[in-house]
Amino acid sequence: MNFTDKYIANFGDLLTETTAANTPYQKTLEYLNEQYDKYNISNELRAKHISELLANLTMGYTAQAMAQAMELTYRELTFDEEMNGLKEQTKSARLRNEELERGMNDRLTGLKKQNELVDAQIKKLKDETELAKSQKEAIDRQVKDNRVIKATSTLGGFISENQAGGMIVPADMTKVFFDMLFGLVKEDLPGLGKPAKFDMEKRK
Question: Which candidate, 53, 4, 60, places its Cα nearest to that of 28?
Fold first, then answer.
């Protein structure tokens, strides 16, 4: 059905409904007739007043019916199109939501991988720091040991030369020499004990 036919049909239905029994239109006419009968208004005057009133009422009802028929017809004829448009919008919104959900899962996966990479980098940096620290400690120990070794070698040579020359080396000096040697090897040989007696006697 085209717009004109649909509009005419709706307009006729609306006019019929607005002037049917028990409507304000009919109630107004009934009230006027009652009042005219009550006050014995002549038929001529009655016809004149009612015709004027009906003209005003008809214009108002007709204009209102035309506007409502126009709106109703437009709604009826565009209903399917609007519904299809809403369905398409709903479908598009659903697809966008699904795409956003997929994208969110991908982003979450990416963030997890980034976190794992950061954790691995932190662990690597920590290991490298620990290695550098242990290397520094080893170098520091080596430097310290080298000083002790040099001092021990010097003291050991001094003791040997004096003993070879017939000198009696004091026990305290010998004790220092063995304490220095013990200090070098005590961590590598934890069960090693230091000598308790340092006095030396000449062979008979």
Answer: 53
- The CA distance from 156 to 107, in Å, is 71
HSE on the CB side for 147, CA within 13 Å? 5
Q: What is the pLDDT of residues 31-79, one digit of tens each?
A: 888 888 887 878 788 787 777 777 777 777 677 777 887 787 777 777 7
Domain boundaries, the chain: 3-111, 133-185
Residue 176 contacts residue 154 (beta carbons within 8 Å): no
Rounded-to-5 percentages of helix, strand, coil across the chain: 85, 0, 15
Number of alpha carbons in the 13 Å side-chain half-sphere of residue 6? 13
Cβ 71 vs Cβ 1: under 8 Å: no
Report the interhelical angle of 43-164 vs 3-19 (nearest 10°): 120
* pLDDT tens digits along 182-203: 887 777 777 777 777 667 666 5
Is residue 143 within 8 Å of 153, Cβ to Cβ? no
Report whether 10 contacts 73 (CB < 8 A): yes
Contacts of 1 (CB under 8 A, 6+ apart): 9
| Residue 40 zone, left/alpha/beta (φ > 0; ψ -120 to 50; rest) | left
Question: What DSSP string describes 9-29?
Answer: HHHHHHHHHHHSTTSHHHHHH
Continuous segment of H or E residues that includes residue 189 = none
